[in-house]
Structure formats: structure tokens, C-alpha cells
Amino acid sequence: MVSQGSSPSLLEALSSDFLACKICLEQLRAPKTLPCLHTYCQDCLAQLAEGGHLRCPECRETVPVPPAGVAAFKTNFFVNGLLDLVRARAGGDLRAGKPACALCPLMGGAGTGGPATARCLDCADDLCQACADGHRCTRQTHTHRVVDLVGYRAGWYDEEARERQAAQCPQHPGEALRFLCQPCSQLLCRECRLDPHLDHPCLPLAEAVRARRPGLEELLAGVDSNLAELEAARMTEKEALARLREQAARVGMQVEEVAEGVLRALLAQKQEVLGQLRAHVEAAEEAARERLEELEGREQVARAAAAFARRVLSLGREAEILSLEGAIAQRLRQLQGCPWMPGPAPCLLPQLEFHPGLLDKNCRLLGLSFEEQPQKDGGQEGAGSQGGDETSSQREDGAKSERHGGIQPQSRAGACTPKENRAQTPQEDGAQTPKEDRAKTPQEDGAQTPKEGRAQTPLEDEGAQTPRGGRSNKKRKFKGRLKSVSREPSPVPGLNLEGSGLLPRPIFSCSFPTRMPGDKRSPRITGLCPFGPREILVADEQNRALKRFSLNGDYKGAVPVPEGCSPCSVAALQGAVAFSAGARLYLISPDGEVQWRRALSLSQASHAVAAMPSGDRVAVSVSGHVEVYNMEGSLATRFIPGGKANRGLRALVFLTTSPQGNFVGSDWQQNSVVVCDGLGQVIGEYRGPGLHGCQPGSVSVDKKGYIFLTLREVNKVVILDPKGSLLGDFLTAYHGLEKPRVTTMVDGRHLVVSLSNGTIHVFRVRSLDS
Asked: What whole-number distance in Å separates Cα of residue 686 and Cα of residue 666?
């Protein structure tokens, strides 16, 4: 894409997809330009026309079809000129068969002419050596530019050939367009000039372009200014979203730290509060995502129109510029008149509130509050004024709370705002705190902020109420509140944690990119699997590579793949690697030697691959059933999950805890997660509201049999028990998930998550009873 404000080169226009139809993906044929300045083949537009209208496939703008049909849309002379140049360059292969001279047959010779070695840029003819020498010696053609044919085909003379191109009159073949009729705004050749435009004031094309170019450039400058405003608005929206995520991450960590010491007593309330936090973040992200999509869509439409206008003004001939001048001007005015800048949406930052009391089991110890995010142009950082009754100390406390993570211990005398983002453990509770480093009791100072500002645990705060480390049994009332939550977390139908009593939780380990210096494109990770001790194998479909990384992000090299293969799903077996690519299943050695390949069904776009727990067999999903191959490439077994062929498994993983070979799959046909035994009988299936209406994605299983399911559309990884019942959310947006794509489990303890941008996050799965 041409950057804003820069002029595109002829080489960019010829080598990019500018000359390709976005409908048929072939080179443009009979190009027609819509009022939105997008160009397509005439036949392709005819297929889209319906009821006198058609929608542009790129900007989705509805365009009325002229009464005469799509043929009446403006012919894009600019694109036609570039296509003529491309066809002339590609016309004939010098290695397969030499092109013939165009003049030899005209001189009375029998058959075709001799082999061409030169080309006249003015006549656009291929010439043999003799005709080329004679072409330079005649009165009429001695000024013509004759160049070497090999160099012409290589593109050395594109600029000169472009300068000598002339738009041909559609009414009078062989006549070039030379004039512009000012009253009719029509391009004329010499024949058209005589009748019926003889009495009309006409201008030569060069003079007409000089007169009209400033107006187009002024309109283009206005759209460029709007593009700058759109880009600034998009960056502001992203920064606000980043601040929200950062604050949510801090609050989430504080929730974990505060709840760690008293987790068993507070588990139910902790899950509720984290759910509220996730719901708020998801709601805010959804609103921000919609605004970003709107801004990016407007920016893309304006940028495409500006790029087209810039190309025409930079590379177009006079006739081409004037032909498109009306459409370009109309579109640029339309874009300038559009409302570009929607007002900023209020963003409420979450604040955690917790009560220091522990003995009252009915006390709600955790809660959330939200404050509106301050704008950049505001006169003061922190929380704004909340009304005439608010005191200055309350505003100061609110500002401190927002700056330092928002966790607020509650007390009768008032809220103490911590300054340091850590929570004191229960073991620190018994130690006496120095006066300058501890929160004063209500008897000392009713609502004073502690100077060290730690988020105290209930045990510590309870001890701090009695001087000299004494205990107080006084219960306190919790003043928690929650505002502006519009979405609920994944519903949890009762906790059934297989005897552990607690859900696993994630501990962030590291994050690293997968793009390597030799990659030509941005990575598109379509498969992950464990590969040796503390290593993973990454299938990068975009760069046609299988990359090895350690869990710390160190690059360990690549497993060579057959030429032309784009690995999709991947699984590691005993001394071999299996992967699917297109409609084939491959088994290769670690050094890239192909052991065998098997053809799969063409009716399925991608095939999920998984290694069986024994490590000597590989399973692959094929059109509603699962096929299992041994190391020699023989089909060991084949079964249909649930006995029905109407399932489409897009992800597959075996339960290492099951000796019967139970497996889990994401079923896109039924929009569910299915758990089957080794014979394909369904023993559990989930298709409830916890999927949020999304298609289930990648699945992984830990050492205890818990299932981790990826929901890409809502930026979540949810957790299910070994029988397929939903337990709750495991990872969400405030863990850094943005369009998660594929996951895998390493050593049963490390969940590896790949994002759509090629980044990999590693989380340690911690059982809270460990």
C-alpha cells in the first residue's frame, strides 16, 4: 500500500495487485471504475448487479447501475494504459519461441517474419534486426525510439514506453485523444473535434490538465488531513484500551495476592469478583473493538480513494486524468464531507475494594468499583470532581487509588488507599509494624492513607487494629459496590473439581515472538505440539516452516518440510513428526526426511492432527470421522465420533490420563466440545452458553485431565472437567489474550498459547491445592 503523502512509482503499479480484479483475482479485463473509485472487470460487475444496484466488494458501498448496464460505468483508461504496457512486456517467451517481426509480412514476404530482436516504443511493434535498422533511416520514423527487445521485456524501458502511450478514441480507431471539450467535459480526437464539437471551446489535453490539477490536489490534501485525524483517533482508542488492560492486569494481580492467604474461605467470592472484572473488561473491549473497526473501515475507504487519486495524478496521462477527474473529485468531496471523528466513549477503570475482616463468613471481602478514565486534554490527572459535596481529601484519595492499582481495604472509619502493589501475607500479620510504615488504626487517625501503602490482608489488618499485635474480634461491615458491568462471565454450573477442591489457575511465565530473520511474511501459527523436554514445535503456515522453541522463547532451529508444503496441524511422535498440509498427511523424521504421505479428503479445509498417548500412532480428523495411522503409514483404525458423520472436528487432543485412549475434539458442525472414548463413543459433550455463541477452537489437556478450550472471538480460554462440563474461565483479555489461535500443553503443567499476530504466551498451570 502506498503511504500517505507519497507518490507511487510505475514499478509499484505494475508489480503490485493494483492491476488484479479483487473479484476474480485475475488480471483486469475491460476495467470499469465505480463511483467509489474501485475498479473491476466488466463481466465480474455484471454478476454482482441485482435489482439495478450492486455493492462494492471492498468498501460495501451500494452503487446504482446505469440504465445501459455495467458497460456504462466509466472505462478506466489509466488501468487500460498500464495493462497495455504489461501485456506488451509479457507477450511472448524468448526461451520458448522467439517473437516474429511485425513489418516483414507487410513487405510481401511469405509466412511470418523473421525473429524479432528490437521494439519501437512509438509504433509498439516488434522488429527484426533488418527492419530495426531501416526503421531508423526513414524520414517518418527516424525519430522513433527503437530499443533492445530483451531489455524491453525485462522492464528497462517501462518509463519511456509509458510516456509514448496515447489513449485511443473509442469512436475512431487509430486516432489518439487530443482535446477536451469544455462544455461537454468529453475527450476528443481530431475527427470528433470536427463534428459535433466544432463550435465548442476545446483545450489541448496538457493545458486542460494544468488547469484542473490544482483542484484535485486541493481535494486530495483535504482527505489526507482527514486521514491524519482518523489515525490519531485510532491511536487514542488503542492507548485507552492499553491503559484499561494494564489497570485490569494490576487489579487482577492484586485480587490474586490479597486472596492467596485466605483463599479457601474466600474462594466463592473471589470467583465472583474476578468474573465481574472480566465481564467489565470484555464489555469495554467489545465496545472499543467496534469503534476500532469503524475507524479502520473509514480509514481504509479514505486511504484507498486517496491512493487511487494519487496514482492517477502521478502516473496517468492527460486524457486519463481528465477522464477520471469528475469521479475522483466527487468521491474526494464525499469523503471530506463524512463525519470522521466519533466522540470518545467513557472508559471506566476497575477498582478493587476489600474488607479486612476475616471471621465473618457472610462478609463480602472483595468487590469492584469503576472510575471514568481521565482524558488526555483534561486539566488534571486522576479522578475528576464527583459533585459539590465531595471533599478535597476524598478527591485526593480517589486519585491515589487510581494511580496505585485501585485496591482499597474497607474499614468503618474510611477507605485506606494503598500505594504499593503487593498484599502482605498472613505470615506477616503477627509482626509489629513501625508507625511510619503501617496503616494507622481508626483510634489513631480515622481515614488516613498508610504511608507504605500495601494492600493488607484481612489477617494483617485485623492485627493492626489492636496495638502491640493484639487481636480484635470486632466484625466489620463490607461496603462493596459494582458499576457498569454489561456482560457476565462464563456460567459455572457448580464446581465439580474431581476431588481437588480447587480450580487450576494460570501463572504467567514468558512471552516471545515467533518471527525469525529469514521469514518473508508475518507468522500464521496453525499448529503447536510438545517436542522434547521443555520444547515446542510451531507450525507456521504462512512461512511454510516447522520452528522449534524452548519454553523460555529460545529459537532451537527448524524441522525441514517438503518443498511447497504449508504445515497446518502438527503432532510429535516417537522419533518422528506428523503434520497435515492441504489434503495430505505427512510423517517425517526430525531431519526432514519424508517417511510416508497419505491423501486426505478434499472436502475439508484443514485437518486436525494429534499423537496418541503411546506415541506410536497419529490420529487425523477427516470429513466427520477420525483415522488412526501407525508408524508405517498403515490405517490402524477408523471410527465416527458418536456414530454420526455430521461432525466436523477442527481440533483434536488425547487425554493422557485415560488408558482407554479417550480424546477431546472441537466440533464446528455441532458447535460443541465432545469427549469420546477410544472407540468413538461420546461420553460427554458441552454446547452451553459458556461458549458465548462462538465456534470452539483449539483444545489442550493437563496432567489431571482438565480440558482447556480456546474461544478466539471473545479472547478467552475456558476450562472444562474431564467429562466435558464447563468449570469457568482460565485466561481472558487481561491476561494478554488478543485473538488466541492455538494452544498446547507441555509436561502437563505449561499451557502454551499462540496469538493471531504470531506471539506466544506461556502460562504455568497451578493447582491451588499444591
From this structure: 10
